[in-house]
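Quick one, T. Sequence first:
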Amino acid sequence: MAVVLDYLQNLALANWVRSSPSLFAYSTVLAAHAVGLGIVVGLSTLIALRLLGVAPGIPLTGLRQLYSIIWIGFVINLVSGLLLFIAEANTMATMVAFLVKILFVILGMIVAELLKRFYFKDLASVQAGVVTRVGRNLAIISLVCWYIALIAGRLTAYPDMVNGWLHLKWG
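Structure tokens:
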């Protein structure tokens, strides 16, 4: 595994992202990651909160269409995230916060697909504005997944602090 991580981190592209003074290197990749994150987490939050009863004036029927935009945001995050990962592959691959983030991003996207397939496929309930128990439960799980991913992702900037917490807890 270390050989693969070394290979990735030593790619010319990784070096460019990590070290280039160009505005189009790290800063733009990080900005793209933030935009993708805003799309995915923002729209997922909008859908989940609506399913939990917030803003009942927003019709449920239009929310299913937001999933194609969520997937666009996810692709932006995937590409920018891979670029950020290869720039620091050795560090990221062993960081607990990063691994937690990836786990909850995967779970968040699975929950998004489950909502789309199992709740929004029931057109009669959606058109009637009825939110099923499955819809509410998946909405809660979605919020938990995305906000754990968001917090864990932010904590990747503070590996020493996180390692300190883990050492105190499980030292």
